[in-house]
Amino acid sequence: MMEEQKLAAPVDPLLEPQSEPAATSADPIEPIDQPSTPAPAPVSAAVEKFKSCRWRATPEDGEFCTHRDVLPFAGKEGFVAESWCPDCAFYKLRRTPKKRERLDFTY
Questions:
Q1: pTM of the shown model
Q2: CA–CA separation, 63 vs 50, rounded Å?
C-alpha cells in the first residue's frame, strides 16, 4: 500500500480545475454585465413636422427648409426645426402621389 501512495503524483491545488457549486433556487442570480445601449432620444413635434414637410430638402442636400421665405433667414447650415417648424405657415404635408387608374382613353 505504501508503494501505491508513492507512485501517485502530488496534486497542486492551483493547477487543478475547480468545480463550481451548483446554483440553487435560493442563490441570487447576478445579472451579466452587458453594455447598455442608450434609448433613442424622443423626437419633438417640430422635428416630426419638419420630416413630413414638403419644403424639406432631400437628405442628400442636407437638413434644411427650401421654402423661398424661410431659406434666406434660416439658411442651409445649422437649421433648427424647433425654431421654425412648430407654427410654420408654409407647412404642407409631403404625400406620395397615388397611382391613377388606367383608363382607355384614346385621343
A1: 0.49
A2: 9
Helix (H, G, I), strand (E, B) or coil at 7: helix
Calpha distance 105→38 (Å, rounded):
57
Q: From residue 56, how far is each of 7, 16, 28, 34, 41 by CA, in Å?
A: 85, 68, 54, 39, 21
d(CA 70, CA 88): 9
Q: pLDDT by residue for the chain (107 residues), tens digit each?
A: 555 555 556 666 566 556 655 555 555 666 666 666 666 667 788 899 898 899 999 888 888 999 999 999 999 898 999 988 999 999 888 887 778 787 776 66
As a whole number of angstroms, the distance between CA 50 and CA 69 comes to 15
**Max Cα separation, the chain?**
115
Q: Rounded to whole angstroms, how far apart are CA atoms 96 and 78? A: 28
